[in-house]
Amino acid sequence: FLKSWRAPGHRQPREAQFSLFIQSHQIHLNSSTMPEISMDEAQNIADAINSGGGGELDSATLVQIMSALQGKVNGMSGLSSGYVEELLENKKVRRRCKALKKCQAEAVGLMAAYQREIQKLDRQFEPQYAALYAKRASIVSGEYEPTEEECDFSDGSDDEEEDKIVEEPEEDGEDDKEDDEDIAGIPQFWLTCLQNCKDTAKEIQDHDVDILCHLKNIRMEYSTQDDEKDFFMVYFDFEENEFFKNTVLTKKYFLQLDAEENELLYGGPSYSHSEGCKIEWNKDKDVTVKTIKKKQRKKGGAGAGKTRTVVRSEPQESFFNIFTPPTPPADDFEPANEAEEQKLMMDTSAMYIDFCIADALKEKIIPNAVMWFTGEAQDFEDDEEEEEEEDEDDGGLAALQRLAAGDDDDDDDDAHDPDYVPPGDGEKPPECQQS
What we know:
Number of strands: 6
Structural class: alpha+beta
Strand order of the largest sheet: 1-2-3-4
Helix content: 40-55%
Number of helices: 12
Mean pLDDT: 79
Order of helices and strands: HHHHHHHHEEEEEEHHHH
Largest sheet: 4 strands, antiparallel
Radius of gyration: 32 Å
Strand content: 5-15%
């Protein structure tokens, strides 16, 4: 009902706009299933609106009105009209609903079978993807320099002619100089990809950057038909570095493809848990912990007044914490105290973040790495989010907020009209005449 409080294209005085909205609000809230608002409250709001005079309201009054209406609207969220509950009291209707749920159960079985077929296709095409990704890795690392034919790709950019490498004969006495600095491959390619993707960027801390500069490749493999469980493995290939001895770090994500028993709302494959690997950190290079030194002075007894330094380690945020994921609780686990409840909440939050990273790696970064490196994928994702936010902001409360800020879209209609001629000094705007 929020969108219906003001008819499109129909301009009314501001008091009339709010009065219509209040009336509409009152009609809906008088239902027995909705939060009640008394006629006195409605009258007080209407009086506050009309007291502005001349169609203008002070911002404090508008803010007060919007807060009151927002509270009422929030109270309505998730409330039922009672129609379905009343209808289900009829035995024949209940029987028909059971028949529909049986059909739904069969549809869920088909959805799960469909996902199994998708998995077979993933495995079938995996070798072809692996070959392309191996070529990508060799170009990024600088092991392979692509030919002119391999670089012959038009993406609509203006600098395509400049990108062509033309070898010119050297002139006598001229130093052998190159226009471009001799760079091997594409430095910090994967670090840039991870930083440009929001799901992974927020896990990268300043102390992680120097390590991720040594990241050579990120690749993925699916489980085989012979494996007991469904999963995919992500490999992080590193150059030799000063931080740890590993050249490959692995992360295994386990999947649940089949629907659970009696499940009627099947959302497709889901993550069950993940397994990391042990990072063999070099001495004093573990960025997942921080060392805290604290001086303590002895207060009494022998050696009173002497100080000593106490050193302890504490965990700290790091991208590399993804390799030590939390263990999911048992399905029937119930926290016995506040400490267990808090730990459960923290573990659940950590698993959610872990699975978001899994999705980002599997669906975004690995298959579209170059687009994340250039930032084009990030721009596309940002544009989609802006469109979603604009759609959400089109509600009636957003219109109230625009009015409170004095931003009335109708005031700009004339400014965007190409045939509009502003009146001169002292002239009145022409009246609208309809035939």
